[in-house]
Design a protein that fits this description.
The protein is an alpha+beta fold. Helix content is 60%, strand content 7%. The longest helix is centred in the middle third of the chain and has 52 residues. It binds fe (ii) ion (2 copies). One fe (ii) ion (FE2) binds next to helix 16.
């Protein structure tokens, strides 16, 4: 058997504990001796009460709206003072604490301290209880059991006994509470005492009520009530826990739904080269206006969701229209105008319980009836759509796009003000203006404020940017810009351009997608042994233009000779025979042969000062652009084996 390890306790605590253990043993011995005079019914009550105490010894019930706790065990022991007298309650306390014993050295020490504290405090409380009744009611009987007794003095006796119990137990259980994981152990000591006092008061009231039940309904009903009450409480607690778990799950599922929709909406908007914050800011403005106007919760929900999904119909608009930098042609504009209808049709399938569909369908209607899709005017336009129109327009012109810079808040406000009565509902414009500063502050607080280049994508692989490290929005934006660039290239090449113009456009488009400081187009001359730098742009272009390289010589010569791309070789290889100082500035290069119908036309070479290396992604883009350009060169000029006429 293990011995008690008291090495963690100081001398005072050890002395304190030893004395209280000694007194408690004396009290228990005396009480056991006295209990020999009990009759059978007293022993039955003691037995049932002990079983109840043991079953519920681990449970504490919180006093509603407080941190106070009450244990069924305390309540029964306290009640036993009335029914079985001091000795019966002490025997009950000793038995219940004995049943609570657990293995483990720390528990054993705690158990001894606590058992002593409970025994002594029960003894003193019982003494105070019967002294109070003797003083006030002249009662000499101990125990009183179900004798009729004045309720006032009974309550007084219980109150004094409760107070005594609290004080004595608190004093004696000091050392054990240091170890004990009581429900309030995390709180500072003074709060622990406060809530223990609340628990004691509740216990007194509970004992009083319990005793009345026992007196009026009989002992068996009384003793049955306690386990039933405790069991119901436990069942309720279990149900509440399950309910809170379910609520948590539903909340989490709903959060995941919203986050999924937000992510998809942002991805769809990325096709339009819209910055990431557009949807969130539009939500802030639109919901802010709606609140300022005092709209209903249903309308607020519709605006919040509508702002998130207002442009999903752009899925049906081709990329080259979405990405077109200039003004749209009337035909392109007609195509663009289908997006509110398409968006509304997609959302109709969701069956929102609030008016999201009309909010999305009519967000491009004008107050004067000149908007689309239906040309509604004034109050015919749903209020939620009128609110969204202002929020969307303000944020769109305020934020930057690849082909338009962001405008100041003052200019954007002016645009909205100018549209009051024609584009926008004047009353909503007024509400927006009144709260504008607050909205912008909210946007800043959420850290989604406007940045000068928000809508711009960095060039592919620009500097040290790795494509795999870019966010999904950026990847989508760049994929769409690439498609648009290729579309533009193919479209322009099909029109009648001179060779010089074709080469210029080709190099310009390369510059939009691939980083470089100098770009040279070399075209083969009639001999096919030499290539001429026919077109050069960027740094040092004047010095490099019209220079000739031999097929097979240098990096570009290698690309021409082998008919395959070469990159990340020393740029000096291309210029070693020029003896020019600036050549040292270049850090990396890439060269790609221009081939159409299996005929070699020349090569395009890129040189960079800042790039450490060109990546596979750059070469893929360069190859795609070169293929389109080579076909155009060959078709238009039939320039193989002869020097092109510029
Ligand atoms: Fe729109
Ligand atoms: Fe928008």
């Amino acid at each position: 058997m293990k011995t008690l390890d008291l090495s963690e306790y100081n001398f005072r605590t050890k002395a304190y504990g030893s004395v209280s253990v000694f007194i408690a043993l004396a009290i228990v011995s005396f009480s056991v001796f006295q209990s020999f005079s009990y009759d059978v019914s007293d022993w039955i009550v003691l037995g049932v009460a002990t079983i109840i105490c043991l079953i519920f010894s681990q449970y504490n019930f919180r006093v509603p709206h407080t941190n106070g706790h009450i244990s069924p065990r305390e309540l029964v022991i306290f009640w036993a003072i009335i029914w079985l007298g001091a000795s019966g309650s002490i025997v009950l306390a000793a038995l219940s604490v004995a049943g609570n014993f657990r293995e483990g050295m720390k528990d054993r020490v705690r158990w001894i301290f606590e058992a002593s504290a409970i025994t002594i405090s029960t003894f003193v409380s019982a003494y105070v209880f019967y002294s109070t009744l003797s003083f006030g009611f002249g009662l000499t009987k101990n125990p009183i059991a179900n004798s009729s007794i004045n309720a006032f003095w009974l309550l007084c006796g219980l109150a004094f006994a409760g107070l005594t119990n609290f004080v004595v137990y608190s004093l004696l259980s000091g050392p054990s509470q240091e170890l004990e994981m009581t429900p309030n152990n995390h709180l500072p000591r003074k709060y622990r005492y406060l809530w223990t006092a609340v628990g004691s008061v509740t216990c007194v009231v509970g004992v009083f009520a319990f005793h009345l039940v026992v007196v009026y309904f009989g002992l068996s009903i009384g003793l049955l009530i306690l386990p039933v009450t405790v069991a119901s409480h436990l069942a309720f607690r279990f149900y509440r826990k399950m309910l809170s778990q379910k609520t948590k799950e539903i909340r989490e599922a709903s959060r995941i739904h919203v986050a999924t929709v937000e992510a998809l909406a942002t991805a769809i908007d990325a096709r339009d080269q819209v910055g990431r914050g557009h949807v969130s800011r539009t939500q802030i403005f639109a919901v802010g206006i709606a609140k300022a106007l005092g709209l209903s919760q249903g309308e607020l929900n519709a605006i919040n969701t509508g702002a998130l999904l207002h442009d999903i119909g752009k899925l049906a608009v081709p990329d080259h229209i979405l990405n077109k930098p200039g003004k749209l042609t009337p035909a392109e504009m007609e195509k663009m105008k289908i997006h509110p209808e398409v968006g509304a049709s997609i959302l109709e399938r969701v069956n929102f319980p609030y008016p999201v569909v009309p909010t999305v369908r009519y967000h491009h209607e004008f107050w004067d009836g000149t908007g689309y899709p239906e040309g509604l005017s004034g109050d015919q336009i749903p209020l939620t759509a009128r609110v969204l129109a202002i929020a969307d327009t303000y944020d769109t012109i305020r934020g930057a796009r690849p082909y338009s810079k962001s405008v100041t808040s003052e200019n954007a406000k002016k645009h909205i003000l100018d549209g009051a009565g024609t584009h926008f509902d004047p009353l909503i414009v007024e509400a927006f203006m009144r709260n504008h500063d607050k909205f912008e502050a909210d946007v800043q607080k959420r850290e989604i404020s406007y940045q000068a280049n928000e809508g711009e994508s960095p060039k592919l692989g620009d500097g040290s940017v790795n494509t795999s490290e870019l966010g999904y929005v950026e990847q989508i934006k760049r994929a769409n810009r690439e498609v648009f660039t290729l579309y533009e290239l193919a479209r322009v090449f099909s029109s009648s351009l001179s060779l010089e113009q074709t080469l210029s456009l080709f190099v310009k488009k390369i510059g939009e997608l691939v980083p470089m400081d100098t770009c040279i187009i070399y075209l083969l001359d009639e001999t096919e042994k030499m290539a001429v730098a026919t077109h050069a742009v960027g740094r040092n272009s004047e010095s490099l233009k019209n220079r000739k390289i031999k097929v097979g010589q240098g990096a570009t010569g290698y690309a021409l000779n082998k008919r395959k791309p070469i990159y990340n070789v020393n740029p000096g290889l291309d210029f070693s025979f020029y003896n020019m100082e600036f050549i040292k500035e270049y850090t990396s290069m890439a060269s790609l042969p221009l081939i159409a119908n299996e005929k070699l036309l020349g090569a395009v070479s890129l040189y960079s000062h800042s790039m450490e290396s060109y990546q596979d992604e750059h070469m893929r883009l360069l190859e795609t652009l070169s293929r389109i350009a080579s076909d155009a060169f060959l078709l238009r000029f039939g320039m193989l084996n002869r020097k092109p006429a510029l």
